[in-house]
Design a protein that fits this description.
about 20% strand, globular, alpha+beta, about 35% helix, 2 domains, five-stranded mixed beta sheet, two-stranded antiparallel sheet, 8 helices
Length: about 180
């Protein structure tokens, strides 16, 4: 994540909505600070750039205590497989709709509980192991709120590009 390449959708009091690049003015606003605090995946932006990586590393080094195997959480689709991948999708309103997938933690990857294996259920996709920072940033939300759109089998059939090609035919046959 590079601050200099980030843009934020900003709604002004007069109802104007603009995408603005990261700037010192934006960073200094109360609304920006609140937004960053409310979105754990923006954790690095809570700190100045030179301190951010140290804070992330400190969180990564800790054992995972907030989840355990068999827990199910809701993860934003754009966070599950990366922003570059998400940008390539042709799903409706992808920057205005909060698409989420159900992720189940399947097992600890070591006895120290520093890594856990997440699986996207509807896509039958085991993801790369997550550490404490990943769980904190992306994978701790246990509540499906009204502003979230849960990716289900019907959505997967309508937008099969979100399925890993190795699973696509099998899942489309299963869900159709």
């Amino acid at each position: 994540m590079r601050r200099t390449t980030m843009s934020f959708k900003v709604e002004f009091e007069d109802d104007d909505v603009l995408w603005l690049p990261y700037s010192k003015d934006l960073d200094d606003s109360v609304q920006y600070g609140t937004f960053v605090e409310e979105n754990p995946f923006l954790f690095p932006l809570r700190y100045k750039a030179d301190k951010s990586s140290k804070e992330v590393t400190a969180v990564r080094k800790k054992a995972i205590t907030s989840v355990q195997p068999d827990d199910v959480v809701y993860v934003e689709l754009r966070c599950a497989f990366g922003l570059d991948w998400y940008d390539t999708l042709s799903i409706p309103n992808k920057y205005d709709t909060l698409y989420v997938v159900s992720v189940q933690y399947t097992r600890w990857r070591n006895h120290t509980h520093k890594f856990i294996q997440p699986k996207v259920l509807v896509l039958d996709e085991i993801m790369a192991d997550w550490d404490n920072y990943d769980v904190f940033s992306f994978g701790s939300n246990r509540i499906l709120s009204d502003d979230m759109h849960l990716i289900d089998e019907a959505f997967v059939v309508q937008y099969p590009e979100i399925i890993n090609p190795k699973n696509r035919d099998r899942l489309l046959n299963l869900y159709s």
